[in-house]
Amino acid sequence: xxxxxxxxxxxxxxxxxxxxxxxxxxxxxxxxxxxxxxxxxxxxxxxxxxxxxxxxxxxxxxxxxxxxxxxxxxxxxxxxxxxxxxxxxxxxxxxxxxxxxxxxxxxxxxxxxxxx
Length: 116
Fold this sequence. Notes:
The protein has 116 residues and is mostly helical. It is built from six helices and no strands.
């Protein structure tokens, strides 16, 4: 919808929702292609877990949780795996904060993982 366009009533919007069970074969195939497969789901689950670990490790050192987000994590790391443990991230964060007097960005934490 664009600016100035009237928003239709809820009943009309509800009709536009696609029900995969009632969709014809072409629409069903398109929707199935868009849904993530098992490998993608596993990758997302691991990425969320790794990001949470990084946030907790850096937050444990600094006293407050940093603002790191999943799209940023995936953009920086790509399809590679994170090879750092929570202890290594905490040690890096302590050293980084002591030297630079600020929290490390997500990019700095991940690049540290690649360099070690």
